[in-house]
Design a protein that fits this description.
Number of helices: 12
Protein name: Thiaminase-2/PQQC domain-containing protein
Largest sheet: none
CATH architecture: Up-down Bundle
Mean pLDDT: 87
CATH superfamily: Heme oxygenase-like
Low-confidence stretches: none
Strand content: under 5%
Number of strands: 0
Number of domains: 1
Radius of gyration: 18 Å
Organism: Acetobacter musti
Length: about 240
């Protein structure tokens, strides 16, 4: 089981969650999804699919390739030897879980008659930026970006899974992808806690304020790109929202 390297979080997670929630609630696309707008829901599922798919692959590329030297220099070889196996296993579990989440995203789309594997769907500019950022070679940026995606997924899921008009749009009356991100049944640290812990471990500074500033900036940029992407998707796939 992964044991966190730091006993205290680098960020005030309640503050980050509020900021993430504000970004989600301000999105015309997401609000329309909550109202049960079929075109908006279709836009959400198709427009963000390239990122959902790429996110799993990005984590897969990290499995077995976490740099060891920065951690040895900081924490010592004996401590890192035990930790490193746990870190690799934690990242591998994230990859496996994101793979299952991608299948749930596909299943939700299929309920609405959308075949994400067969369609030639566009990749919007901000979605491409989200994908590029998730493949960063810098472990600080990579893991803080993963944390940002976790914040987004949890807050988006909490909002839409509690919107009856949204869930009623699915024949099953459930959005399984969202439910997977609102169920907190991890034994040990959550993926969010592990992401922030690893980002902090790889950060060259030991000043908590400096580390917190870096993580907050990366997470904030992730949330901002999600908002921009949602607006781009709305403009192209649910233009009726522009007049709402």
């Amino acid at each position: 089981m992964y044991a966190l390297l730091f006993s205290e979080p680098a960020l005030d997670r309640d503050v980050v969650r509020v900021a993430t929630r504000e970004g989600i609630f301000s999105s015309p696309l997401v609000r329309a999804c909550a109202r049960g707008d079929r075109e908006a829901i279709r836009g959400l599922l198709i427009g963000f699919w390239p990122f959902v798919q790429a996110f799993e692959r990005a984590i897969d590329q990290r499995v077995g390739h976490l740099p060891l030297r920065p951690l040895v220099e900081r924490f010592g070889q004996s401590r890192v030897k035990a930790f490193f196996g746990e870190a690799r296993e934690a990242v591998r579990e994230m990859k496996d879980e994101e793979g299952s989440h991608a299948l749930l995203w596909i299943a939700g789309a299929e309920e609405l008659g959308i075949d994400l594997n067969a369609g030639d769907y566009p990749v919007f500019g901000a979605v491409e930026e989200l994908i590029r950022a998730s493949t960063s070679a810098d472990p600080v940026e990579f893991f803080s970006w993963l944390a940002g995606v976790e914040y987004l997924a949890e807050e988006l899921s909490a909002y839409l899974c509690h919107a009856p008009a949204f869930t009623s749009a699915f024949p099953s009356r459930r959005w399984l992808w969202g439910e997977a991100h609102t169920a907190h049944d991890h034994h040990g640290p959550s993926h969010l806690e592990i992401d922030e812990d690893l980002a902090r471990a790889y950060h060259p500074s030991t000043d908590p304020a400096v580390v917190a500033g870096t993580l907050a900036a990366n997470i904030g940029r992730c949330v901002q790109l999600f908002d921009i992407a949602a607006n781009e998707i709305a403009e192209q796939m649910a233009p009726q929202l522009q007049a709402a």
